[in-house]
Design goal:
- By secondary structure, the chain is mainly alpha-helical.
- The chain has helices spanning 2-10, 18-37, 49-61, 65-91, 96-112, 114-119, 126-146, 149-165, 173-187.
- The longest helix is centred in the middle third of the chain and has 27 residues, at 65-91.
Length: 188
C-alpha cells in the first residue's frame, strides 16, 4: 500500500479515468443517496458489489473521489499478502522454509505488478474482485487441508462477494467446486 501511496504523491491522480470509472463513481453516489433517502437500489448495468464497497467508503471517509479510490488502493494492496498466503498454503508440504521463500517471491511480484498497480489506482472493480477471489482461493486450500467448515464458509462468502463485484469471477465456482469434491472424496 505504501508503494501505491507514493505513486499517488508523485503523480497525483483521482482514480477517475475513462467512462467506466465515472460510471462506478456516479452510480455509487446515486446508490448512497437512494439508500439514505428511501432504501431503493437504482438499476445499474454492472454488478453492484463494487459500488457497495464505494458507498461504504464514501459514508465513512466523505464524498470524494479519493474515498472511492482508496477502495481500489487498499484491496489492490491486499492481493500481495493474500498471494503470499495462497502460495505458502500450496507449498507447505514441501517444507516451511521452501514455502515461505516461494510465497515471499510471489507476494513481491504481485505487490509491484504493473497491471494490478494500475487497476488499484483507478476507481474500478478489478482489484477489488481480485482481492476477494484470492481470499476465496486461499480459503478453499485451507479448507482442503484442515476440513474446518469456517474456511469453507469464508471461501463461499469471498467468492460470492467477488462475483457480485465482477461477474467473470463466477467462473471460479467450477474449479473451487471440483477442489472441494476431490477433498471430500479423499476424506470419505
Amino acid at each position: 500500500m505504501v508503494l501505491r501511496g507514493l505513486l499517488l504523491v508523485v503523480r497525483p491522480f483521482d482514480g477517475l479515468y475513462g467512462q467506466d470509472a465515472f460510471a462506478y463513481y456516479n452510480y455509487a453516489l446515486e446508490l448512497r443517496t437512494n439508500l439514505l433517502q428511501n432504501g431503493t437500489i437504482p438499476a445499474f448495468f454492472w454488478p453492484i458489489g463494487f459500488p457497495l464497497h464505494l458507498v461504504f467508503a464514501l459514508s465513512v471517509l466523505g464524498v470524494s473521489p479519493l474515498a472511492a479510490q482508496l477502495v481500489s488502493v487498499i484491496t489492490g494492496a491486499l492481493v500481495a499478502p493474500l498471494t503470499y498466503a495462497l502460495t505458502r498454503e500450496v507449498l507447505i508440504e514441501r517444507g516451511p522454509q521452501h514455502a515461505r521463500s516461494a510465497a515471499l517471491v510471489a507476494g513481491l511480484i504481485v505487490a509491484v505488478g504493473g497491471q494490478l498497480m494500475i487497476s488499484s489506482l483507478s476507481i474500478m472493480s478489478d482489484a477489488t474482485a481480485l482481492m476477494w477471489a484470492t481470499l476465496s482461493a486461499w480459503s478453499v486450500l485451507r479448507y482442503a487441508r484442515t476440513l474446518k467448515w469456517s474456511w469453507f464458509g469464508l471461501a463461499v462468502f469471498a467468492l460470492s462477494v467477488a462475483v457480485i463485484t465482477r461477474w467473470a469471477m463466477a467462473l471460479l465456482a467450477v474449479p473451487w467446486t471440483l477442489a472441494v469434491l476431490v477433498t471430500w472424496r479423499k476424506q470419505w
